[in-house]
Amino acid sequence: MSSPSSPATQATFAIGDERTASRIVDAITERYPSHDLAIAAFEVPGGRWDITMHFAEAPDEDFIRALVTETAGDAAAQSIIFSTVETKDWVKASLADLVPVNAGRFVVHGSHDRERVPPNKIGIEIEAALAFGTGHHGTTRGCLLLLDQVLNRRTPKRVLDLGSGTGVLAIAAAKALRRRVLASDIDPRSVAVARENAQLNGAGNWVEAIHATGFQSPHFAANGPFGLVLANILANPLRQLAPSLAAHLAPQAFVILSGLLPHQASSVVAAYRGAGLKLLKRIQIEGWSSLLMQRR
């Protein structure tokens, strides 16, 4: 995290409706690989919404624009203005009012709410400085709810969190199962954050976080075949990964997919059906779809 005297980067743009603004905030919060990000959306006169992002370190502008394009189109992405501003604790300021998020047996919370986790729940503590927002929208909550349902049916022996980000899903699975979980991400910074979060949650010995693109790393073959895969990423990479993901599944394995807008879900389901999986359940939360599939 930058020091109070160092400059930060600000990115701003406007969008036409609340629903799209919410989706953009969710997508960036979930998938941007830096933990030095704070983002907020505010309604302005005329019915439009201003979206403002603050980065303690210089952001990957192309990746930010790609996320916005995926959610709201190229015109919105090209309207983003990046500028340098005076630093303040934007993360703390933006996340101060967040409350614990319940999803089945799981509760995602900050350190200030540690004592509020019921004894019959599994707490997942994520500090504000380490992107606490990951539990606070439909994609992560949808995955946690489906994970809870899978664990009510079966106890998978080998688990993979593909595109793990801050490690929330890997930590949830590891704490519930009390066994090893492989977590992979394409961004080294996210891998470091996932490791730190696993240690914070007492799951450091169970979560193996690795830097990997696709399924190229030998870690996947060494730790598979997997009885459960969680992949909360985006529609295009999910479709592209379908054949290789299916090749690493155990018989009757479960797969939880998210990061999908409702209109994208059908094409993702089709890709995984073509790879030998069937759809068991689809849920929609806050404009995001999450899928539970199983290898036939």
TrEMBL record:
List the keywords (alphabetical).
Answer: Cytoplasm, Methyltransferase, Ribonucleoprotein, Ribosomal protein, S-adenosyl-L-methionine, Transferase
Q: What does the entry give for GO biological process?
A: methylation
Pfam family for this entry, one: PrmA
Q: Which GO terms describe its molecular function?
A: protein-lysine N-methyltransferase activity
Q: Source gene?
A: prmA
Q: What HAMAP family is this protein classified in?
A: Methyltr_PrmA
Q: Which reaction does it catalyse?
A: L-lysyl-[protein] + 3 S-adenosyl-L-methionine = N(6),N(6),N(6)-trimethyl-L-lysyl-[protein] + 3 S-adenosyl-L-homocysteine + 3 H(+)
As for subcellular location, the record says:
Cytoplasm
Residues at which S-adenosyl-L-methionine binds: T140, G163, D185, N232
State the source organism's domain of life: Bacteria
Give the principal location in a single coarse category.
Answer: cytoplasm
The identity of this protein, by name, is Ribosomal protein L11 methyltransferase
Keyword set includes Repeat: no
Function recorded in the entry:
Methylates ribosomal protein L11.
**In the record, what lineage is assigned to the organism producing the protein?**
Bacteria, Pseudomonadati, Pseudomonadota, Alphaproteobacteria, Hyphomicrobiales
Q: Which residues cross the membrane?
A: none
Which SUPFAM superfamilies has this protein been placed in? S-adenosyl-L-methionine-dependent methyltransferases
Give the PANTHER family listed for this entry. Answer: ELECTRON TRANSFER FLAVOPROTEIN BETA SUBUNIT LYSINE METHYLTRANSFERASE (PTHR43648)
**Homology family:** Belongs to the methyltransferase superfamily. PrmA family.
One GO cellular component term:
ribosome
Top-tier EC class:
transferase
Q: What's the EC number here?
A: 2.1.1.-
